[in-house]
Amino acid sequence: MNYENYRHRLFPFAYNILGSAEDAKDAIQDVLIKYHALDKEDIRNEEGFLIKLTVNHAINLKNRKSKMIADKVWLPEPVSTENMAFNIDREMILSYSLLVLLEKLTARERAVFVLKEAFDYSHQEMAETFGFSVENSRKLLSRAKSKLTDYKTERRFNKPVDNSFIEKYVYAMKEADIDALEKLLSEDILLAADGGEDIKVVRELTTGVRAASKLLLYVYKAFLNGLEFKVGQVNHQPAIFFYQNGGLYNCQVFEVEAGKIKGIYSIIDPSKLGQEV
């Protein structure tokens, strides 16, 4: 078997459930080591069997991680969907906004939702993967969707990325022009920041145009002014990458709806920056 090909094939399954590229790689490595030691005489569908092992291992890992971070804002690890390895199916990587929403779900609800929405699994296929009934699969999917009140089908994958607002956004920040900045933000704007274990952010969650604008301008002036930056794409959404001393310092991922910025997800946690898929 070609283990390298399987690593790329299994990555979207593990990453969409775990929300972490590094954890996904570790999970896949664990699965491949386990599989290598198995008696494979009765295994008829090698790829299907590996997907099943990966999904269930990812669920167990997600359960453990969720208990560790229950009281903090936790943002998914961003992956570049414009520079992703050619043999990883980038179409199967969920949008960043949807990954954020999936944190509302239990690990098993999340896995069922991911298999249905991203990979178009039937309830029969999901029942076989998880080892429970078709009815249980239906209930888990229904429960997941009822929790995702903000979910929209078009957020699944890659709508065309519109970066036209970013030049105005950066200009407003540089000029400390709060009026110009407010015009770019939706009324229900949400700012979320994740500094991980080592970096204390100014505020983890902020909502509302005025509060968000003030915080954005303060953070830019205090921490980002003068840093090199570039515009890119993270999980099919516009993003700005800020660099300090040659390393990635901050990644801001934007959710844009009806021409307005509805969400800004700011990742400062060093453990989530700099991973290559």
Layout of helices and strands, plus pairs?
Layout: H1 3-18, H2 21-36, H3 46-68, H4 96-101, H5 107-117, H6 123-130, H7 134-147, H8 164-174, H9 178-184, E1 185-194, E2 205-207, H10 209-224, E3 228-234, E4 237-244, E5 247-257, E6 260-267
Parallel strand pairs: 1-6
Antiparallel strand pairs: 1-2, 3-4, 4-5, 5-6
Q: What key phrases describe this protein's structure?
A:
alpha+beta, six-stranded mixed beta sheet, 277 residues, 10 helices
Structural description of this entry:
- With 277 residues, the chain is α+β, with helices and mostly antiparallel strands.
- 46% of the residues lie in helices and 17% in strands.
- It is built from ten helices and six strands; from the N terminus they run αααααααααββαββββ.
- The chain has helices at residues 3-18, 21-36, 46-68, 96-101, 107-117, 123-130, 134-147, 164-174, 178-184, 209-224; strands at 185-194, 205-207, 228-234, 237-244, 247-257, 260-267.
- A six-stranded mixed β-sheet has the order 2-1-6-5-4-3.
- α1 packs parallel to α3 (46-68) and α5 crosses α7 (134-147).
- The radius of gyration is 20 Å and the shape is elongated.
- The two termini are 21 Å apart.
- The relative contact order is 0.13.
- The model has no long low-confidence stretch (mean pLDDT 89).
